[in-house]
Amino acid sequence: MDFLILYNPFLKKTISYSLTKEKINHCNIQLSNYKNNSTYYGYKKEGFNFNTESLEFISKDLVGTTKSEYTNYLNAIFKCISENQIKKVVAFRTKLEIKPKYFCPKRAFESLKTNFPNTFVFWLYIKNEIQMMGASPEIVGILENKKFSTYSLAGTISKNDNFSKKEYLEQEIVTDSINKILSKYQSNVVVTPKEHFNFGDIKHILNQIEIEIESKDFKNIIKEIHPSAALSGFPKNEAIDFINQNEPQNRTFYTGLCHQIIEDDKQYAFAFLRCFEIFEKDLLFYAGGGIINDSDIETEWNETERKINSIKSIVM
């Protein structure tokens, strides 16, 4: 059975879902990969329990992103920025690790919940397609009592360092782009003061952005926001085109969208982030970062390394 097990930090609750590719009009959850060409629908599965030995792990010859590949990709981004075609592109890479013999998906999932209780912790299993797990801080939208809220989360440094102009600029691009979208639905957009969001040994800059909406508008809004400038770049369409034409690896479900429906007036959407794929012999970790004119290749590489290690140190 294909499934998604999801811990929601706002509900403080873990819910299991049975997934199908067959479209369900009144489903409890809907999820799709980054390119939105693989979509699954699901119902809540009460009393879900299984033996992890029944899971089938994909056997595949894998390689992670080399530093040379990453450097070449960032240089292509810098060239595009210098030609004024784009202001920001989010570049990702992967890191391959041999799966420890003692690795247990159930234990890894529980460890992520314990260590990252303020994130959406997910375990996605689709037979012969993907098995992915992670702890995502990337909230696309929350609907509670006719209030829509989202988070502009970007700019990454070590927990003990200070943010520079580069991180603030990168995060402001995300805030401005979301604000512009929400302004189409209501003129009174509330943006809270900047704060810091800690994730393991790293931290980000964050604004919360809110408007009042009708429940029926939630799905359209999250589709307009996702993938935000924190996941694609800016301007959004130009950044997505650049990524689709130049990105050296396939994102699969990394930065894909998950939409959880508790009831009409209580819905949550987040992006699959801070995650890794589980294979027969390996674990493949994903991490990305926003690239702007002031970015430095070595600094960006180290940033992705810290993001990967924040998850890797918990599950390995």
Present the secondary structure layout:
Elements: E1 3-8, E2 13-20, E3 29-32, E4 39-44, H1 67-82, E5 88-98, H2 105-115, E6 120-126, E7 130-136, E8 139-144, E9 147-158, H3 165-182, E10 190-191, E11 195-199, E12 202-212, H4 218-225, E13 233-234, H5 236-246, E14 257-263, E15 266-271, E16 275-278, E17 282-291, H6 297-315
Antiparallel strand pairs: 1-2, 1-6, 2-4, 3-4, 3-14, 5-13, 5-17, 6-7, 7-16, 8-9, 8-15, 9-12, 10-12, 11-12, 14-15, 16-17
Overall description:
The protein is an alpha+beta fold and 316 residues long. The chain has one domain: 4-Layer Sandwich (Anthranilate synthase), CATH 3.60.120.10. Helix content is 26%, strand content 36%. It has a 17-stranded antiparallel sheet that branches. The longest helix is centred in the last third of the chain and has 19 residues. The relative contact order is 0.21.
The gross shape turns out to be: globular
Total number of strands? 17
Helix content: 25-40%
Number of helices: 6
State the low-pLDDT regions, or none.
none
Number of domains: 1
Quick overview of this protein structure:
The chain has helices at residues 67-82, 105-115, 165-182, 218-225, 236-246, 297-315, and strands at residues 3-8, 13-20, 29-32, 39-44, 88-98, 120-126, 130-136, 139-144, 147-158, 190-191, 195-199, 202-212, 233-234, 257-263, 266-271, 275-278, 282-291.
List descriptors:
alpha+beta, Anthranilate synthase, 6 helices, single chain, globular, 17-stranded antiparallel beta sheet, 316 residues
